[in-house]
Amino acid sequence: MLARRLVEALAVALPGRMLHVVADSAYAGKVLRGLPDGVTWTTRLRSNASLYELAPRRTGKRGRPRLKGAKLASLANLAGSAKFTPTTVTRYGTTTTVSVAVIRCLWCGVFGPQAVQVVPVRDKSKTGYDVALVTTDLAARAAQVIERYASRWSIEVAIEDAKQIGGVGQARNRLRSAVERTVPFALAVNTLAVCWYATAGHHPDDVAAARELAPWYREKTQPSVLDMLAKLRRVIIAAQYRHEDPQPPTPQEITILRLAWEDVAA
């Protein structure tokens, strides 16, 4: 419910914009019925999902028209009889070819009478499927659905970094107001730190310096969040403890702050 309310608030704040929401299977329930116009939802389809054919055309007879067609076979049986085609996708930083099928149907238990696309994906398996995705975006190609779902992994990594490195996981709050403030504030601080590094703190020699300290780490090619936070701490300490008398901020320091704020505003 909270996730839907947040999406609806964004839809109101951004009129005319298409919002493509991506979430794991935990965010799939009856609360997603009747999504606002301009909002699509992509998630992982549960293996025991009950799928139905699209509602048949109206017969012209009296009575309420049918909202759904006949019940489809289980997802495993559907994948076994579906026609898979090779598709090139770019996900997790690599481009690869997978086999996909597209089934247009209804997932009444979650989206009600709204039509959806089910995309079973064969990555390593020769039969059946490895993962099945579902989306309310009927205009998206199968490759777009797969890449869109894969893009959510960066959010998972960001939350993990914030918990384990940025201190978000150390919050021990009991009052509701504290719970509502502490974690969001800590996530915002971690975001600001990454924005600072991307706009002002990055240096091409950062990775080389990190590899000198850990020569056994031969595969490191990009700075990690830990590297970003460590450099920010060094810069803050160096700016806070100066050997000379305190001086007004230099143009370079003002530029660093301006760039950081512009990045957050954007």
Computed structural class: alpha+beta
User: Uncertain regions: pLDDT < 50 for 5+ in a row?
Assistant: none
Number of E strands: 7
> What's the domain count?
2
Count of DSSP H/I helices: 9
User: What sequence of helices (H) and strands (E) makes up the elements?
Assistant: HEEHEEEHEEHHHHHH
Comma- or semicolon-separated keywords:
41% helix, 7 strands, alpha+beta, elongated, seven-stranded mixed sheet, 266 residues, single chain, 2 domains, 9 helices
Q: What is shown here, in short?
A:
This protein is α+β, with helices and mostly antiparallel strands. It is built from nine helices and seven strands.
Question: How are the elements arranged and paired?
Answer:
Layout: H1 2-13, E1 19-22, E2 39-44, H2 75-81, E3 85-91, E4 94-100, E5 103-106, H3 108-111, E6 115-122, E7 131-135, H4 142-150, H5 153-164, H6 176-201, H7 206-213, H8 225-240, H9 251-265
Parallel strand pairs: 1-2
Antiparallel strand pairs: 2-7, 3-4, 4-6, 5-6, 6-7
